[in-house]
Amino acid sequence: MGTRFARFHPLVSFLFYAGSVMLLILMLHPVFQVISVFLIIGINIIHDRLAGLRKWKYLLLVTFVLMVVLNPLFNERGRHLLFMAGDHRITLEAVLYGGMNAFSIIGIIAVFISYNVIMTPNKVLFLFSKFLPQFAVLLMLTLRFIPLMSRRMEEISLVQKSKGIMVTNGNWRTRVKTAFSYVQALLTYSLEEAIQTADSMKARGYGTGPRTSYEFFRIRSKDSIAIVILTLLLSIIIYGRSLGYGVLTIYPMMEDWRLATWDTAVLICYILYLSFPIYVEAGEAFRWHLSN
Amino acid sequence: MALIELTDVTFTYPDSLQPAITNLSLRIEKGQFVVLFGASGSGKSTLLKLLKNEIRPHGTLTGNIVINGSPIQDSSGLSQEIGFVFQDPENQIVADDVLHELVFGLENIGLTTNEMRNRVAEMVHFFGADDLLRRKSHELSGGKKQQINLASALLMQPNILLLDEPTSQLDPVSTRELLDMLKRLNEEFGMTIVLAEHRLEEVFTLADTIIMMEKGEVLIAGEPRQVLPQIWNSKNRAYVPGIPSLFLKMHEKGLLPLTVKEGRNWIATIKPTFLATETEKQQQQSKNVIKTKGLSFRYEKSREFVLDELDFALNKGEFYALLGGNGSGKSTLIKALAGLVKSEQGKIWIDDKPIKSYKNNDFTKYIGYLPQNPKLFFLQDTVERELHATMEQFGLTDWTETEALLEELGIVHLKTNHPYDLSGGEIQKAALACVLLRKPKVLLLDEPTKGLDPISKKNLANILLSVKSNGVSILMSTHDVEFAAQHATKCGMMFQGKITSEDNPERFFNGNFFYTTMIQRIFRGQAMMPLTLEEAAHSCVSTIS
């Protein structure tokens, strides 16, 4: 029951996820990004056998395709012409730029899906309620919203379908308009319902005094080691990044995409960081194997 | 000294001209079970929230609220003293698994883990909820969720329990379970309970005091047996449940029966004789508007069939009430008939044509679907705009006709409001107006009576009957046996994805033991078993009076 990674102190998990999101935003390099997507899929497989990712696959796909396609459509800059669409220049730079941003975004979404499995609201609350009670409420409501909103979206589209309003109807203008009105309805509805959640929290004395936690998340030695490893890796990568490694400059002039020695060193740290949940699990499996 | 004492309390919401609570004075003694009732918008919820400092709504409050001897304004730390359970089972849940949800309040008041373990162990035992502890909260049924909400309020060991329509989203069985729990708490632990409620049949038998509210004021308050005749003789007759209604309608003297047991005893003493009722109307076979054959559906391949080889037919001009427990597939059937979920096997014919042959707009014109949660129905931010959008979509231009429809539904004054600002009954009517605009031939309603007060329910019935008289066929799912018995022309019981029995209400309910009306229960075993109040009063003549 539960993965090894899930049993770490919430601080470890939180550090890992916060760091991952940061890295996905900062390390804009095709090689880094392709590897990171595979690693994150691996993490998702271990944590919930892709159940979460599968639910979001359309969103991920649509976001990815949109970003890859739209950027070259609006952006003609770049020296490497791929082909001409009419009198519109499609450049390698624009495609790459769009693709890198797309990888970055879907990587972040995928990280959040895994985050949602591991960081139960109680862990989040535990982390934040000690010193930031108001922020904890905000964070928790936001986090509970992710799966709740997707369930609500399904309901809304079902009900709207009964009215004859569908995203698959009409020309693209109407479709976009419909989609927007769905999202608006979803937001209004969700905000309305969230007020009640807040009331229910206050009714049970939230924020009245110092809070205790039912499960003692004590920092054990394993947790400290994990924190040290993660922080070390993260600092190396960030330091490397600040020196310009691990990022592909596209504008004004595109660099060679191939990795220099230092790029490779940063990449190794990057892989070690992102695959932390994977080798932790592997280690656990190995130990289990030995003890039996 | 009273435990809760309100003197001249007036409360006005910001930006509102009329106070929500007007000059209200009230005393609630320790250990009492008090039921608040009245139309939605009468101030029940506001009153309950005023009693709990932490969730007191913004607005201006005058007058005094004294709880346990200390004025509420300057009493902090009362959060443990008063427990609160809200209406919607889903929205009050904070944590994603049950155990965390239960301890949420305890953590807030800073108990040590050991104390928490003790309290939780005890409470879980009391509720018999051991197997729920590790479950994800959103997987639970509405009834279980509400039990967990009650349990987490009780873990704070309150002396006073406030409940704001806790059963309005629940089916009859879950409602019964929750009310039984409240009864135990009141009787075994002397807990003071204040409950706002619409469904009065059951709660009146539990209450020591019932308080009827109207427009922020206490209209009538007192012991049920004393107060009910007063309510019966006022314009709010609809609030009196079936059994006392019959008693009062027949101008009986003596102890007012509230429970089925008392009702049966009363019937036994009066030895009713029955007038012969008119012979049953000949059922004419009319055309099917909807027909299904061998309909099967499941949400996921790994799960069981929700609809299992289901055969169903809705005839023209029929008012079909679909009954059955939670999870028996009522909602899914309605969704399938509305073309919202695709069946795995089987066929659906709409007006003798296969469902697939319809184009989207023709289909939505033919079939009107009202979802269980009418909030999701609205995309625009006022009722009026929603109506305009619908008119545009279906090429309607006659606004006077729309206005006439609103008039008929009694919601003209609400058309500039945001749908979410309407009460449960009002938002439903607004959604219904949008559906009726497109003049559907068939109405599919998913639990339209959920959470409605008796007056709104009567309103809804009148609307549906007038729609039906225009030749519209209606299918509704409901838990409300009384409503089905009074208004439906045909009832069906759904069980494990099939319709296991269907008949006209008289024969349908006569065969049932649980799924039947209060009136029928008190007449069970008599020469005749009338179903509704009207029938009973009509056919049964007391020998005494």
- Strand fraction of chain A equals under 5%
Principal-axis shape of chain B equals globular
Task: Walk across the major sheet of chain B and give the strand order.
Answer: 6-7-8-3-9-10
- Name the chain pair with the biggest interface and residue counts per chain: A-B, 50 and 64 residues
Count every beta strand of chain A, where a strand is a DSSP E run of 2 or more residues.
Answer: 2
In CATH, what is the class of the largest domain in chain B? Alpha Beta
Tally of individual helices of chain B: 19
Low-confidence stretches of chain B: none
For this structure, the quaternary state is: heterodimer
CATH topology of the largest domain in chain B: Rossmann fold
Distance between the termini of chain B: 44 Å
Count every beta strand of chain B, where a strand is a DSSP E run of 2 or more residues: 22
Largest sheet of chain A: 2 strands, antiparallel
Mean pLDDT of chain B: 85
Round the Cα radius of gyration of chain A to an integer and report it.
22 Å
Structural class of chain A: mainly alpha
What does it look like?
The complex is a heterodimer of chains A (292) and B (545). By secondary structure, chain A is mainly α. Chain A contains eleven helices and two strands. Chain A has a two-stranded antiparallel sheet with strand order 1-2. The longest helix of chain A is centred in the middle third of the chain and has 32 residues, at 172-203. In chain A, 32% of the residues are buried. Chain B has a six-stranded mixed β-sheet, with helices on both faces. Chain B has a six-stranded mixed β-sheet with strand order 17-18-19-14-20-21, sandwiched between helices. Chain B contains 19 helices and 22 strands. Chain B folds into two domains: 4-231, P-loop containing nucleotide triphosphate hydrolases (Rossmann fold); 288-503, P-loop containing nucleotide triphosphate hydrolases (Rossmann fold, 3-Layer(aba) Sandwich). By secondary structure, chain B is of the alpha/beta class. Chain B is globular, with a radius of gyration of 25 Å. In chain B, α5 (172-189) links the parallel β7 and β8 (192-196). The interface between A and B is large, with 50 and 64 residues.
